[in-house]
Amino acid sequence: MNIIDIIVPDIGEYKNVLVIELAVKPGDVIKKEATLITLETDKAAMDIPSTHSGIVKSVHVSLNSKVSQGDKIISLELESSELESSDIPVEIKPEIKPEILKTNLTISSDIYAGPATRRVARELGVDLTKVMGTGRKNRIVSSDVFQFVKAIMTGQSGLPGVNSGSGLFVAPDLDIDFSKFGAVESKPLSRIKKLTAANLHRNWVKIPHVTQFEESDVTELELFRQENQAEAQKRNLKLTPLVFIIKAVVSALKAYPQFNASLSKNGEDLILKKYINVGVAVDTPNGLVVPVVKQADTKSLFDLASDLGILSQKAREGKLTGQDMQGGCFSISSLGGIGGTLFTPIINAPEVAILGISKTQIKPVWDDKTGSFVPRKCLPLSLSYDHRVIDGAEAARFIVHVAKQLQDIRKLLL
Ligand code: CAO
Q1: What CATH fold (topology level) applies to the domain 3-95?
Q2: Using CA atoms, how far apart are residues 269 and 331, in angstroms rounded to an integer?
């Protein structure tokens, strides 16, 4: 038997270089130039090819181990045709990784992809565990990697090639076996949850969010609301604070039209809308949906209460139509019926801002007239806005406007 050792060749000044891929195992029949291992330094990734053809008898390195020039990589039983060949010089071309899409590279020996595909993935910084293979036996081919990158760059999810039901980047260490630490149960995400997850993730990553907080003294408003509750009930309606908040938001959208807008596709223009449709986040057993109260600026408090009642009921029964959820200009997410103090809602693109509502609390507020603290009902507001479109000062003016409208019921009803 003619067995030779293939060693790490001259790799320049590098020493103790990390083995990031192991492409062979004992028993493999390999051809000359086949990749044996891939090394990664802080600047480059390089494949180390075999200098001969033959059968791998043993592998002397392991994944994540470190090697230097001269270290044994494998022992190879030479093919008969190789017996006469002498040492073949090997040229190693370091591949400088571009500074784009540098996701955490996850190393997995279970990935079914050839060295060329792996190289493409490395160059683009793509984690192959997230790519779905379309080749034979689900082998990942180069076009799958390009498709994956395209899906991410164009903000699309659910495309072939993106190996995640929700189109999300999954944390690289999610192949942990959690059952090692205790009992677990795996539950599939609902279709709505997957769609919401992909949208929220895209919006969070793509839109530079800032959240501005404010509090509104709604003591008078709450009195008015209670006084009119009986009348609402006669009409089979419920006057919740949200109805008044929609009114206040409509007023603020009229005063600050840049909030009633979307960026154009090329990002060069702001499209100002001359209609006011307000989306309302509704919590349903299957996940979050955002039906839209259409032409909110033309509606009375009772009309708004009626729309809200119908839409939230349809949402909870899973009966919303595409039409019900289209055309929103600005969204409101109210957690006021649940509790909590303040939160940072995520903008519902292509809208440019969203108002979060938390639970009204009784607080001591300083009263200049009496020179004392008096108990007042305070409603916490959180306005998240797209900072590419809206300046901080504009956001502060908008939220103060909303707060003042709610504070002074006469203004609201005008
Ligand atoms: N402070 C104190 N109480 C409030 C309040 C507030 N800000 N907002 C509502 N309430 C009260 C209501 O008056 C009502 O009280 P009663 O039961 O005594 O009449 C109770 O809380 C429940 O209100 P509601 O939830 O039925 O009605 P709503 O109009 O406030 O909200 C809807 C409707 C559909 C928006 C809401 O039910 C819902 O689904 N909210 C969750 C939205 C969500 O999940 N957002 C998070 C999205 S992720 O960013």
Answers
A1: OB fold (Dihydrolipoamide Acetyltransferase, E2P) (2.40.50)
A2: 21
Contact 47, 122 (CB under 8 A): no
Average pLDDT over residues 86-94: 38
Ligand 1 atom nearest residue 312's Cα: 34
CATH class given for the domain over 97-206: few secondary structures
Look up the pTM and report it: 0.66
pLDDT of residue 409: 86
**Phi, psi (degrees; rounded to nearest 5) at 380:** -80, 135
From 335, 340, 281, 332, select the one nearest 311 (Cα to Cα).
Answer: 281
**In this structure, which residue's CA is closest to atom 17 in ligand 1?**
337
Helix (H) or strand (E) holding 267: none
Q: How do residues 151-206 score in pLDDT, each as one tens digit?
A: 777 665 444 444 444 555 556 656 788 999 999 999 998 888 888 998 999 999 99
Residue that is written with structure tokens 């959820």 in the block: 325
Looking at ligand 1, which residue's alpha carbon is closest to its atom 22? Answer: 337
Predicted confidence (pLDDT) per residue in 48-63, tens digit? 889 999 999 999 999 8
Alpha carbon 323 to its chain centroid, in Å, reads 25
- The two three-digit tokens of residue 398, written as one number: 């908008």
Determine the CATH number of domain 208-412.
Answer: 3.30.559.10
Q: Respond yes or no: is residue 201 known to be catalytic.
A: no
